[in-house]
């Protein structure tokens, strides 16, 4: 009987391990998509945008597959305590990753519009590239926190998201100034604002992933905490 229980437990552990691996694979694809979209913005190489749009389908497929696996685990294994939190947390994490993939596609389409209109975004001198690198770094840190179930790293991501918000607002002020000084820049500036907003939202989704890491490990839902200080144990 004990051998049978050990076998079932081992199978369950393998299923949870596969779930975590698939989440990290999905996260890696999201990273690739975001980086490709930002490279297209910086370099004006719009030829790869179709690949970004097509790549979003793979992210959507992974989300559905992971969701199905989570439902299967819950129905078959009836997990409790930390195992249940892991499965439920993964279900929310993949939603945030899928939305980040959508935002990468949105950035790519905005880049295509800007360059299609013959207005290189570099003329505005705003820090889109820096904002994007900061957001992408948050995605990487959030995924690493999930991989290691590291709540200290997760809290650092949550705190750093505030810096992205500040930088985003600075970019918006610069673009508004450009539009006021030269109305001919309005169309392109609006497209850049859309891109900046998408990047800022990617940072928000990284923060959401980190909040789920804390929930998985500690069983605490901190999504509506007023500040990072409230999340401290």
Order of helices and strands: HHHHHH
**How many strand segments?**
0
Estimated radius of gyration: 20 Å
Helix content: over 70%
Main structural class = mainly alpha
User: Strand content of the residues, in percent?
Assistant: under 5%
Largest sheet: none
Question: What general outline do the C-alpha atoms trace?
Answer: elongated
Mean of residue pLDDT values: 89
* Low-confidence runs of at least 5 consecutive residues: 1-7, 226-231
- The rounded distance between the terminal residues' Cα atoms is 40 Å
Helix count?
6
Explain what you see.
This protein is mainly alpha-helical and 233 residues long. The model is unreliable at 1-7 and 226-231 (pLDDT under 50). The chain has six helices and no strands.
List the helices and strands and how they pair.
Blueprint: H1 2-43, H2 49-77, H3 81-116, H4 128-148, H5 151-181, H6 186-218
Task: Considering the chains and any ligands shown, give keywords for the structure.
mainly alpha
What would a concise description of this structure say?
With 233 residues, the chain is mainly alpha-helical.
């Amino acid at each position: 009987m004990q051998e049978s229980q050990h076998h079932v437990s081992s199978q369950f552990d393998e299923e949870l391990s596969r779930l975590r691996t698939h989440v990290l694979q999905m996260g890696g694809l999201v990273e690739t998509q975001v980086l490709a979209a930002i490279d297209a913005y910086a370099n004006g190489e719009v030829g790869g945008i179709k690949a970004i749009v097509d790549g979003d389908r793979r992210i959507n497929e992974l989300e559905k597959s992971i969701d199905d696996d989570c439902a299967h685990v819950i129905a078959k294994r009836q997990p409790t305590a930390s195992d249940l939190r892991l499965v439920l947390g993964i279900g929310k994490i993949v939603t945030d990753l899928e939305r980040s993939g959508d935002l990468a596609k949105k950035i790519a389409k905005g880049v295509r519009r800007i360059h299609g209109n013959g207005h290189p975004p570099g003329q505005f001198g705003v820090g889109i590239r820096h904002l994007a690198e900061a957001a992408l770094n948050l995605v990487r840190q959030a995924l690493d926190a999930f991989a290691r179930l590291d709540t200290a790293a997760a809290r650092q991501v949550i705190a750093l998201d505030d810096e992205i918000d500040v930088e985003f607002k600075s970019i918006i002020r610069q673009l508004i100034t450009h539009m006021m000084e030269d109305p001919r820049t309005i169309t392109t500036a609006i497209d850049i604002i859309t891109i900046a907003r998408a990047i800022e939202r990617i940072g928000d989704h990284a923060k959401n992933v980190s909040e789920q890491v804390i929930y998985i490990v500690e069983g605490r839902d901190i999504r509506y905490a007023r500040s990072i200080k409230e999340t401290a144990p």
